[in-house]
Write a structure and sequence with these properties.
This protein has 291 residues and is an alpha/beta fold. It has 2 domains: 172 residues, D-Maltodextrin-Binding Protein, domain 2 (3-Layer(aba) Sandwich); 83 residues, Periplasmic binding protein-like II (D-Maltodextrin-Binding Protein, domain 2, 3-Layer(aba) Sandwich). The strands form 3 sheets. Strands 4-1-5-12-6 form a 5-stranded mixed sheet, sandwiched between helices. Helix 3 crosses helix 9. The two termini are 27 Å apart. Bound molecules: glutamic acid (GLU).
């Protein structure tokens, strides 16, 4: 069965804005206990032990995706569902959220950041794909979504069948551009989703495409002008990135998020972020086994 947890949501804009870092938001919705003895629980020589002993972790996240990973210049911490997942992992390593070094990643630099060691982990609307798994480690998925279209209200684009010959933007390094090109659109790549969204608002392009979970956040910021249309036309399996030089991280990440799925923290994280749009809390996805 096709999963379309976000396709049915259009309104409730004010609610999702609550997940964007605005006043009154619960900045720590999941009561994540920081493990003070974290280092002693990991085997010598593992990446987990090294991170826990150093008390430092760098996590690559998006800063411009409301509901997933969002941070304005003045905010002390980013907020969103991806951020909550990352905080659960950091806590297991003995590192509180305010001690995490949050590094902004754009779609195009996620692999290089992991390969060069600029970050230890990526939690950034990061689809698991065979191509990416050739160059980085990806554990999960911890979330499922699907590609959709964002348009100006009243647009003649009502779904993917209408994009032939139209200008459709997304970001370079994402899975989304190729898909719309294959469907006959003129694909235009930008560095960030906010640049692409501005093009839709200005009429420079006809539509923006990416994961439905990202598009809803943008629609919620401009409910009078923008809307998400059509059914999802891909399945995006959102996972956690790590370096292939540290394969032991796969089981650690998978076990840590599985525990959160089992003890209700995953659902609490969803309800406090993406769920504020009115979306029903989905069943957590089944994660891949580590090699
Ligand atoms: N999930 C898709 C990807 O990883 C699109 C979203 C993004 O680029 O962050 O390519």
């Amino acid at each position: 069965m096709k999963r379309a947890p976000f396709a049915i949501l259009a309104a409730s804009a004010a609610l999702i804005l609550g997940a964007c870092g605005s006043a009154g938001e619960d900045s720590n919705p999941v009561d994540t206990k920081v493990d003070d003895n974290a280092a002693s629980q990991f085997e010598d020589g593992t990446a987990m032990k090294a991170i826990a002993e150093s008390g430092k972790v760098r996590i690559g996240v998006k800063f411009d995706q409301p509901g997933l990973g969002f941070k304005s210049a003045g905010d002390p911490q980013p907020v969103g569902f991806d951020i909550e997942m990352a905080k659960i992992v950091a806590a297991k390593l003995g590192i509180a959220a305010d001690k995490v070094e949050w590094v902004e990643t754009i779609s195009d630099n996620r692999e290089p950041f992991l390969q060069k060691g600029t970050v230890d982990f990526v939690f950034a609307s990061y689809s698991i794909t065979d191509d990416r798994r050739k160059v980085v480690g990806q554990a999960g998925p911890y979330f499922l979504t699907g590609q959709q279209l964002l348009v100006k209200k009243g647009s003649d684009i009502k779904g993917v069948a209408d994009i032939k010959g139209k200008e459709v933007c997304s970001v370079t390094g994402s899975t989304s551009l190729k898909q719309v090109e294959e469907k006959g659109a003129k694909a235009r790549g930008f560095e960030t989703y906010s640049q692409c969204r501005d093009q839709v608002l200005d009429g420079g392009v006809d539509s923006m495409t990416t994961d439905g979970s990202i598009l809803l956040g943008y629609a919620a910021l401009n409910p009078d002008e923008l809307e998400v249309v059509g059914e999802p036309f891909s399945e995006e399996r959102i996972g956690m990135g790590y370096s292939q030089d540290k394969p032991e991280l796969c089981q650690f990440l998978t076990d840590t998020i599985q525990e959160a799925m089992d003890n209700g923290n995953w659902a609490k994280a969803f309800e406090a972020t993406l769920g504020k749009s009115g979306a029903e809390t989905p069943e957590p996805p089944k994660m891949d086994a580590c090699a």
